[in-house]
Every structure is written in C-alpha cells, then in structure tokens.
User: Fold this.
Amino acid sequence: MTLRRGVFLSGIAVLCAWVLVPLYLIALGAVGGRDAVNSWPKSFWPAELSLSTITAFMNIAGVWTSTLYSVEAAVLCMLFSILLGVPAGYALARFAFRGAVAFRLVVLLTRAFPVAILALPLTVSFIRLGLYDTPLGVGLMHTALALPFAVLVSASLFQAIPREFEEAAWVFGCSGITAFLRVVLPLALPGIAATAIFAFVISWNEVFAATVLTVRHKTLTAYLLSVLSESPLHVQFAGGFVLIIPSVLFIFLVRRHLFAMWGIANR
Amino acid sequence: MRNTRLAPYLLIAPSLLFLAVLFLVPLVQTVALAFQADGPGGAAWSTANFARMAGDLNFADAIINTFEIVVIVVPLQLCLALGMAMMLRHVQRGRDIVLWIWSIPLGISDLAAGLVWLAILTDQGYLNTVLNWLGVVKGPQSWLSYETPIALLAAIVVAEAWRATAIVLVILVAGVQLVPKEYGEAADVFGATPWQRFTKIMLPLLKPSIQTALILRTVLAFEMFAIVLSLGGRNFPVLVSEAFTWQYANQNFGVAAAYAVVVMVISLAATLVYLLALRTPPEQR
Amino acid sequence: MTRPGLRGLSAALLGATLLLAPPRAHAEDMVFVSTQMRPIEEAQKVRDTILKDAPAPVAYVTEDPPALPVRVKAEMQGGKHTISLIGALHGELQPLATMGALMTLDDLAARLKERGIPDEVMKLGQFGTGHQMYIPWMQATYLMVANRQALPYLPAGADINALTYDQLQAWAAAIQEKTGKRMLGFPAGPKGLMHRFFEGFLYPSYTGGVVVPFRSDDAEKMWTAFAGLWKTVNPNSTSYNFMQEPLLAGDVWIGFDHVARVLDALRQKPDDFVAFPAPAGPKGRGYMPVLAGLAVAKGAPDANGAMALIDYLAKPETQITTARAVGFFPVVKATLPPDLDPGLKLAVAAIAATGGAKDALPSLLPIGLGQKGGEFDKVFMDTFQLVVLRGQKPRAVLDRQGQEMQRILTETGAPCWAPDPPSQGACQVK
Assistant:
C-alpha cells in the first residue's frame, strides 16, 4: 500500500515537474541575457539574478500599451462569449428543438475553420464600421473564435446536471428563469468560469487576427509576433516569458475556483 | 412552461446572429475567394487555386505532417489527461496546487510554448547539456533541422503535448466532478476492480466530456502553427502554416483560401466522425 | 462553497473592466509605418535616437513587408486612414504607387535638391512616371562575415576581399575537415532573406542575369555547384532568420546576410569578426544594393507632418545618426565621421569593397511585380528546396520553375531589370 502510494506520489511529482521545469528553463533564458543564451554547456542555475533583459524588454516602447490592449480585447471577448454562449449552450442541452442539430453544426463549423483567413475579409468591413484598429474590434473577432467553445462547453456542462433538479425547482413554484438562476447556474458556475478562462486565454494568445486588424493598437501577441521573430534569442525568450507570466497568474487566481469544482463532486 | 417552444430560439438567437455576421459572412467571402481566379475578363469561377495548391512542392508534406501530428498528439493528450484526472481524484492534500500546476499550460499561447521548447531544444540548449553530461552526445547537436525529421516531429509532439493537454484535463475534470460518487460506491459493493470501475463506469459517464474535449483538441491541432513555425521553421510545413505563407509571404489570397477550405473540410469531417462515434442518446442525458 | 473563488473571479473581472477606459494619450501622433528596422532593438533605436529630435511626435510602427500593401489597400478601401508616412524598400513602394496609394512629392523633391541625393537615385523614386513617388531615404547591401578563427583555413592564395564561390567552398570544406563541423551559414529560415541571395548574388554571378537565364545551362551548372557548396553548410541554416545570432553563438563561422542583420555581431565583438564582400562567380561579383525610400500615403491624416519628417530624416545629421544607430547608410551628401564604432567601420569597409570591386555586378531588386513579388521569391526558394535540400536533378526543376516564373512575369507584364538586358513588354525566360 505504501509502495503504491509512493509510486502514485512520484507520478504526481513527475507530472508537476513536466509542467514546471520547461517554465523554469525559459525563465533562465529570459534573465540570462545574450551571454547565457550563447553559453555551452548550459548552467541550470542563473549565473546572476539580473532582470535587465526583462526590464529592457518591458521598457521597449509599446510593450506596456499593447499589454493593456491585450487585456481589453481579452476581457471583452470573455464577456461576449459568456453572455452569448451560455444561453445557447443551455438551449442545446435542455431543449429538443427543430434546428438544434443545424445550430450545433454551425457552431462546430466555426471551430473547424482556421482563424487566420477569416480576419482578412473582415478588415475592410471593420474599417467601414470604425472597428478597425480598436481593441473592441479585436475582441469581437476573438469572440467569433471563443463563442463556439463557450457554447459547446456549457452545453456539455448543463447536460451533465440532472434535469430532475430543475424539475424539482419548478414543482416548488420557481419559474424557469428562477430555477435556472437558483439551481442550475450555481452547479454550472465552475464550468462557466472555466469557459470564461478559455475565452480570455484564446483572446490573449491569438496572434493572426489581432495582427491583421490593428495598426497602432496592437495586442501584445501581435506586437511580439511582428518583432520577436526578428529579434535575438534572449529577447525572444524574454518575450515568451512575459507572455507566460499573466496566464500563470490568471490560472492561479481562479485555482480556488477550479478546486471548488472538485468540491461539488464530494457533495 | 408557456414559452418552451420559443425559449430555445430566443436563447440561441444572439449567438446565431453574432456568428452570422462575424463568421458566416467572411466564410462565404473566403470560399468565394478560393474558387475564383483572375481571368482575362476579371475574376471568374475556377479551380485554379486548388490546382496550384495541389501542385505545390509542400502540399503533400503539409498534409502528411498535419495528420502525423494530429494522429499522435490527440490520443496522447487524451490518455495523459484521463490519467491525470483519475490521479487527481486520489490526491488528498494540495489538490488545488496540483490542479493549478497542471492547468498552467492552459494559459500559454502556442507562440510562447514554441519559444519555451526552443530554449530547451536548440543546439546549445538544455536537452543537449543533459545529454552531453550523460555522455549520449558530444557537444552541441541539432535536433530541429531538415536532416533530423523524426527528432523534429518528436519535438513538436512533445511541445504540443506539454501545452495543450491542460485543456483536455480541465474539460475532463469538470466532467469527472459531476459523476455522482454513489456510482463508484455501488461498484465497490459489487467488488469491481479499479480498472473495471474506470472502464465500465467512469469512461461511459465521461463520454460527453470526452467528445467535447476530442472535438476541441482535434480541430485545434489541425489549426496549430505558431509552435511548428518556431520549432521547425520552413522545415516542417503544415496546412495552416502553408495557408499563412501563401497569404502573407506569397500574397496569393486565392491559394491561401484554398488551403483554408481544405483545413475546414478535414476538420469538419473529423468533427462529424466524433459526433457519430461518441453519440449520447437523449435518454441518457 | 464556491464563494471565495467566485469573488476572486468577479474581482478580476471588475479590475479588468476598469482597464477598459482606454488610455489614448498618443492618439494624435503621426503614424510612420516602416518595413525597415523592424527588429525590436533596432526599432527602439529609431524611436530613441533617430526620431528623438523629430519636428513633431511620431508613432513609429513596424510592419512585415508582405503585410504593408495589404494594410494600405485595406485603408484605401475602408476610407479610414491612419498611416501618414511609409518607409519601405524601392521594390516594396512600387506596388503602392501602382495602386495609387501614394501622394506625389514633386515639390518636396525640388526643395530637397540641395541635399545632394544623386540624380539617378532620386529618379528611381519616380518609377518612370515623371512624378516623384518617394524620396530616397537610406541604403545598404548584403555582405559576408567570418569569425577570425576561420581565417587560418582560407585556401592558399585566396584574397578575402576578392573571394570566388569555389574558394568559399574550399574554405568551408577545409573547416569541416579539421573541425568536423559545417560552419558556413545562410539565412534560409522562414523570415530570412535567402531569396535575395539567389536573386541578387548567385544568379548574376554565375549567369550574368536573373530572369532571362533562369533555366540556362549556366544556371544548371550553378545549382549543381551550389548543391556542392551546401554540403559544407550548417543544416540549421533553414531555421536562421538572420546570421548575427549563430555567428555570435559560434554555431557558424562564415555567414552571408543583410548588413543590418549581422551588424550586431560586428558591434558586440569587433575583434572576433571580419566583414568582406560576397564571392564572385564566372560572370562577376553579383551584388544587390538596397535602397529604402519615404513616401506619403494618399489621404494621410497628417501629410504636412509626414513631409516635414521626410525633410528631417533627409538631413545630413539625421542620416549620419541613422548610419550610426542602425547601419543603413546615407543617400544624401554626408561624410561619415571618423569616430564610428569599430563594428560599423568593418561594415562600411566591406560595403565599400563590394561596390568598388573590379568585377562588381550590381543587380536590382525585382521591379514591377507588384503583389506577385512573394511568388517570385518563392520560385527561387522552391528551386533551392527541390534541388539542394531534396536532391532533385536541376534540369527538370528549372524547366518546371521556369514556366512558373514566366507565368508571374506575363501576368504582371514586368519588363526585365538589371542585370538582365532591357526588354519590350514582359521579361521572357529564355
């Protein structure tokens, strides 16, 4: 039993290391500067703790502002996807209606299409609508990418919540909407939060559409893509590291929430 | 319920409208682009773009590479994530920390993930340092060049497994936590082994989650390209990177759109296969 | 049970929403889009050094060359203009002029006459229309850089400033024999400028032309020779986007690239490197001078500001600052001061040696291809990939790719450019 426990715990540890070690290594690459990147053999400890590469990177004009645009677009994308996607997911899960299959197909079709190309015909219409080169425009475009996630994930969430719970609520005189708000929504919230994270992350990480739809108000990824691929390795690593930090923090912020999802299973 | 007949339509209307404007319209424009070519009298319907695409030297490679990646990565990720999700059920202390660590890659873009693994796999990278120390290689060694296609494929698979397993994991964990504990307890009463419990109870109950995860992952795997670009450069063409090259570098939107249509048809086919293979009858919902 | 988590999430949401009040502090700055000096460190030098004393605040934005016409076209069609000033290569500005996206700058050109831009260079900015479409901005070229450790392996009797491709191969082969490593490098990565090597260096050197002799016997011999040379080339070359990194890392001892893309290596370790002209072939020392120009977008939000900035950038002092900062050289009459840093001096000497070589054979950037420029480059890279990387027979590949090239030229109707002989109508592959 203890042996099994030991194997189990080391399995957990290995999987944690599998995630963390690469992150540690890019952090090394990011703080080490050019000399560390060109050194051989590599040291697994930082020679000196200097943040000069990263501060130099963050001081480059445009990095901070583009970070802000990234957050704007990502939050908008998150809000739109949840507000539009959750009701649709609920409809798919709870109602057998004519056109449900077709709707599901349209949603899937969206996911089955490469992002990149869609932004191009959109450029011209966005300019006409005044959405070109705005975080709102980018957020809208990203919603087109994240919405299918939101719909599909929330559909499968609601599907997994027994219908009887709601029916019980109706019996006690709750209206459809109240039953949804009081009974179903709390159960589904952890999953919806996960969906919101998806939406945020999709937008935060999306490069191509953001590049095409902006000139001056570039999001961080778009900004990095245009400069990173032509920068020396240590700057690339610093850029990669900066891209990663917020996502690590964001996931940390909602980790209790992810944990709470676990709590429901123990009910 | 009075409005039951109308309710679902009201619920889907906003998203449908949104998708019509921001997805269907540009989609139609793109498909039109793929099937048009400049003729003597302006643009005319033609399959010239597809002919050029199929005649291109990278087309066959791109198809093969794309499928190789999807076929290797998606099952790998599903198994890994299932294993992790099952392990998580038995973690008592520090569950939220483990869950947090395992879901970190969820927030990492493929651009950043490519850079992470580039730092490890370059000639003078950390992998070679370790291998050198173990005496496996002598001095810097390249793994990502056109002369080492298998190592390059392995590198991309590893990087993709590292980055995107978390998405599958979160969907599965969300599914697992909705499986009532009583099912497992009942199985215990009947003396089921852990493996039987997993295959006979957990897997069937997780089917909707697995379906969602598979669809999302497969379609995303067909779409991936920043990770391939940062690790393999032009040594490892995939369908979307070719679409990107035709669009951006070669400035031929028609051929780029043709590639886009191919990716769409393939993804659509894969999606349909999953929908049919993992169908959940309504009465089990 | 989910309360704390939810509160955290809503706090995050709220915090993020507050950020939505957008800071538009620099919304009114004039937008200067450039396809040159894109790398992060160079762009920063442009903002901090070159544009520091600009007449008005400037938002310096970089754009990949293929994306520039897409963006300009989109702004034209959409009618909302953000770009005022465009800085790009001669060949990149031409399609913009063709689509009518550039303002004519005849008055400005007349005013700038006393700056001493050579007439033939100024005239390039007219694209043969009789109107000034852009003002020449700065120039550069490509060169070779070698680590000093490689010098002992130079073949006997070879002059590094008058190298031939055969000697280069012998040199790299000697290094490979002694060190066991392939130390020659080319920027053949996805964002590298390898196609320029074929268009401006290898083809002219071996065939005396680019388009006309594309599938000639000389070209066939050239590709066979280059496939031989490639045996001594570091296989990572197909991932190199520019050579200064592998040179600095010691992965590569001899490299070819655009001066701005090796300058960092020369600057960081001027004592470790030498710079010299690209090799010569049977037909001469083919090389491609690079000319960048400044143009004002039609419908620019701030056309006057853009012209004032052109005036500023074409001042001798600014041009010298530009040379110091990013390694692009003046087009106006300006003498580079003697106190240049040692790395830049190496580059200047190599560029002078390239243009001044007895067998120099200048080759222009492709002209008149408009949006097909990318596909033109692809013809060379595809041929390279098929012949050199996949080992196919050059004859069959050249015949096939020659048809492709002819199709592009016929569709665009582009006449031949130097060093090919001038043509009536579209250039013809022989």
The CA atoms of residues 117 and 209 of chain A lie 8 Å apart. DSSP finds twelve helices and no strands in chain A. The domain at 61-230 of chain A is CATH 1.10.3720.10 (MetI-like fold).
